Amino acid sequence: MMCDSRVSSVIQEWTSSYPGQNHTQSQNPTTSNHAGLNTQMSQVDMLSYGPSQGLVRGAGEDRMSEQMMGLPYLSYTPSCLSNTMNLGSSNHHQSHATAQQDFCPFLLPSLRAPVAKRSITKDSAEYRLRRERNNIAVRKSRDKARRRIVVTQQRAMQLQEENQKLQIRIGQLAQELDTLKHILSQRHLQAAQDEATVENAM
Amino acid sequence: MMCDSRVSSVIQEWTSSYPGQNHTQSQNPTTSNHAGLNTQMSQVDMLSYGPSQGLVRGAGEDRMSEQMMGLPYLSYTPSCLSNTMNLGSSNHHQSHATAQQDFCPFLLPSLRAPVAKRSITKDSAEYRLRRERNNIAVRKSRDKARRRIVVTQQRAMQLQEENQKLQIRIGQLAQELDTLKHILSQRHLQAAQDEATVENAM
DNA sequence: AAGAATTGCGCAATAC
DNA sequence: GGTATTGCGCAATTCT
């Protein structure tokens, strides 16, 4: 009693506040295939964690940029042999900004134009501000997720305890009920016998 | 019944396989202060997510390296004004490898020597191999964590449902018990009256 | 339309 | 030695 309502609210909050299920989640077709929040993958565990689906890429920075352009595969194989030389030479933002020019020359000019826009001038202006703000948001969000996990786990343990207590209570009640039924049947028998006795006496 | 054992195993697995609590977690004194898996922080939410404790640093890469050297604060303030220029100029591994030479000249030579060692030659050898292997492990681990979360949540919901059913069952049993007790008391009364009648007739 | 929140990923430190 | 976990920052996306 009363615990159920609290539990209910927690579950509710969990379900509604954990958007992993209803999000579209179609952002990265190459690496998101194994993170679908689904539970029906167990025998392919060892096979699903390939090296980024073959696309090795450079230093692991601005990877989305190239893939999200609409060319997930076979476009701009990132020189698997020379990536060691490229490792530190590429500025994150620089490479991100120029990638659209270098590797997507076939796009419509209207789509390539934004490269020089002020909004893309991330090299050192309020870009740092935005990054820092996002970092703070990320920390906060992850803290929240961690707390949520802990709460859910505690709730599960608590529910399990309560379940055991309820099972015990049910056992007690059932036993008591059995006893009473037995007594009642005995009384029934006794009454029948009494009636029979009286009838015989008449 | 039977569900409890399964739940128990799940909870057990959860508790034992989620090492967030017993890990030392002292890796980054500057930014890890707010991620202690503790649930008692609610009114300081907005205050705990500062910009990395004041240490702005360059591009957010190889940050641990400098801090983990044993000089978390006040050592090598990373030129907060010129970080915008430094943003892309620093190679991750290069800066990491040379940091020990540049910023720790007071260490014993025996501790500074490893810079040129093969093991620290991460620039392009089997470093990539190690990184890729770790990346695979990370993906796998996070998948596991995600599945664990989903399982725990489902378990909690299932336990809640079962709890409600048990509560209902308890209500039914209690009612039945009440009825039987009432009947029994009536029989008691009846028997007493009968006995009195018989006694009077004698 | 703009900022906050969420998420997948890679890196480095660390635990095991 | 290797894998597993974890905190963090980045970028893309979604939510508000």
Describe the 3D structure.
2 copies of one chain form a homodimer. Chain A is mainly α. Among the domains of chain A are: 50-105, no CATH class; 127-202. Helices cover 59% and strands 0% of the residues of chain A. Chain A has 7 helices and no strands. Chain A has helices at residues 3-17, 45-48, 63-68, 83-86, 92-103, 109-112, 127-201. Residues 1-13, 15-45 and 53-116 of chain A have low confidence and may be disordered. Chain B binds a DNA duplex (16 and 16 nucleotides) through helix 3 and helix 7.
Summarize the structure.
With 202 residues, chain A is mainly alpha-helical.
Q: Top keywords for this entry?
A:
homodimer, mainly alpha, 7 helices, 59% helix, DNA-binding, rod-shaped
